[in-house]
Specification:
This protein is of the alpha/beta class. It has 16 helices and 20 strands. It has helices spanning 8-19, 60-68, 105-109, 116-131, 147-153, 158-173, 182-194, 214-222, 265-271, 274-279, 281-285, 324-328, 356-370, 373-376, 427-444, 460-465, and strands at residues 2-4, 25-27, 39-41, 47-49, 55-56, 75-78, 80-84, 90-94, 202-205, 226-228, 233-239, 242-248, 253-254, 259-261, 291-301, 310-313, 320-323, 339-346, 379-392, 412-414. A hairpin with a 5-residue loop joins strand 3 and strand 4. Helix 1 (8-19) runs parallel beside helix 8. The longest helix has 18 residues, at 427-444. Bound molecules: flavin-adenine dinucleotide (FAD).
Length: 466
């Protein structure tokens, strides 16, 4: 079988089919694996992530995939998330002694960037999520409702919206609250923060992202398969309602018993013949799926400026600072005693048209405001990586546009974070889609196998109550 695309979706499908003794031939256009969740070497020799990626305790399929490919020990989990605002007020999210759903109550009550009125309104919204077990009736309204609308209906204060809901959800879902389907937002809080004690724990790679996938090639090759890099697919040929072959740059054609197309939806649209859209109406809809941007800013300081492994910033353009030097446990090639920080700005629409230097100046000013040691430190080097189409936009109603992995075209399977997984555009969603595509193929071949992992079970009082 052939997999097109060596991102997490293609790798998850490829590795699990190889494990089921299928001969997998994977074709990736770039010279490395990992897709959007990867790292590479800059012209100056610095090894950087395309952007900082994090996972959460509730991402059970990604965790399973990391285990399969032997890199689970390269993800470090943190159970304390630190927030700070420009006035220097801090807050944490951390499970205390109480059982779920009250495990965060202690840290929430002392969360200084929020007022008492903000907290009371947030508490009300949490009760609404809990009562519906992660679901509320208005999520079913035709076309969906936006997260902002959902929050307004629950009387959230402007402070709660700006300094709590927006801070958590824009990072998790890469979209502004008025453009996010409320069911994704509610899901984040149900799965990550309310239903159990560990769903919120944040997993951060302690190596550059590309290193995580070292085991994939070996896993596929061990079973007689191959991983072909620098192989951009240009098109496909259909015959009698089935895929007959795929065609690469330079005209090389390949055929297989089955094909998993694990490329971003915009890329799939470019390679789809008109006949495919006619045979599978779901393919005609994917053009309606929008994209949202993420900007990563990389700073190399000449000295140590930060002690925490990461920090969430409230009321600023910069949303997160990751202390890469501390996370890697090395200087990662930067100057002796220097420190490498990576900043993340999700839904960074405003930054897209700005010149690189303007973004550096803006973020440096904020970093110096938040980290006093950075005021005296020299910025030795900086780089900005703008991803205009970082993720699909989780706009209200987008689920109606996301196709299933199995199509009406014989031998054609889809995978990718944008396919119908119920999850937003995340590494977890990508792995789920790969597993679902592999499950469909195994079922079609008469050798069904369950690959998809179950969600974290509710615990504490939530389990007792529901
Ligand atoms: C800046 C940024 C930050 C992010 N942060 C997080 C985070 O913190 N946590 C999280 O869970 N998710 C995060 N994400 C989202 C996450 O990276 C994606 O959801 C996930 O990696 C998507 O995997 P995929 O396999 O579906 O797609 P991709 O990773 O896009 O893989 C598709 C692959 O197909 C290849 N391809 C495309 N066209 C062709 C062609 N014609 N021929 C051959 N190959 C082709 C591409 O090169 C690519 O390797 C982030 C994304 C970005 C961009």
């Amino acid at each position: 079988m052939i997999v097109i695309g060596g991102g997490l979706a293609g790798l998850a499908a490829g590795v699990s089919l190889a494990e089921a003794d299928w001969r997998v031939r994977l074709f990736e256009q770039r010279p490395f694996l990992g897709g959007r969740a990867t790292s590479y070497v800059l012209p100056d020799g610095e090894h950087v992530d395309n952007c900082q990626h994090v996972t959460l305790g509730c991402c059970t399929n990604l965790e399973d995939f990391y285990r399969r490919i032997g890199c689970a020990d390269k993800i470090k989990y943190f159970d304390r998330l630190l927030f700070q605002d420009p006035q220097g007020r801090t807050g944490t999210m951390q499970a205390g002694m109480l059982p779920a759903p009250f495990h965060m109550t202690g840290s929430f009550l002392s969360f200084a960037p929020l007022t008492f009125a903000d907290k009371r309104s947030i508490g009300r919204a949490m009760v609404s999520i809990l009562r519906g077990k992660g679901h509320t009736a208005d999520l079913e309204e035709p076309g969906g409702i936006s997260m902002l609308e959902w929050l307004k209906r629950r009387g959230q204060t402007p402070g709660a919206i700006k300094r709590f809901w927006r801070v958590v959800l824009v990072s998790a879902l890469d979209e502004e609250l008025d453009k996010t389907d409320a069911h994704y937002g509610v899901d984040v809080f149900w799965k990550g923060f309310l239903s159990n004690r560990t769903g919120y724990r944040m997993g951060v790679p302690v190596v550059p992202l590309g290193v995580l996938y070292d085991g994939c090639k070996a896993e596929i090759e061990k079973r007689g398969g191959e991983v072909n890099l620098r192989m951009p697919l240009r098109g496909m040929q259909l015959r009698n309602g089935a895929i007959e072959s795929v065609e690469f740059d330079g005209g090389r054609k390949e055929s297989a018993d089955a094909y998993v197309f694990a490329v971003p939806h915009q890329a799939l649209l470019d390679m789809l013949p008109e006949e495919a859209k006619q045979r599978e109406p779901a393919l005609g809809k994917i053009a309606g799926i929008g994209a949202s941007p993420i900007t990563g800013v990389h700073f190399w300081f000449d000295r140590k400026v930060m002690s925490e492994p990461f920090l969430t910033m409230v009321d600023t353009t910069t949303q997160w600072i990751f202390n890469k030097t501390a996370l890697y446990g090395t200087n990662n090639g930067s100057e002796e005693k220097g420190q490498y920080l990576q900043l993340v700005i999700s839904a960074s629409y405003d930054l897209l048209p700005k010149p690189r230097q303007e973004i550096i100046d803006l973020c440096l000013k904020e970093v110096r405001e938040f980290l006093p040691e950075a005021r005296e430190a020299k910025l030795a080097k900086a780089t900005v990586i703008k991803e205009a189409a970082a993720t699909f936009s989780p706009q209200p109603g987008v689920d109606l546009l996301r196709p299933k992995q199995e199509t009406r075209i014989a031998r054609m399977l889809l995978a990718g974070d944008w396919t119908d997984t119920g999850w937003p555009a995340t590494m977890e969603g990508a792995v789920r889609s790969g597993y679902l595509a592999a499950e469909a193929l195994l079922r079609q071949a008469g050798t069904p196998k369950r690959l998809l992992q179950t969600d974290l079970a509710p615990d504490g009082l939530v389990r007792m109550l529901f």
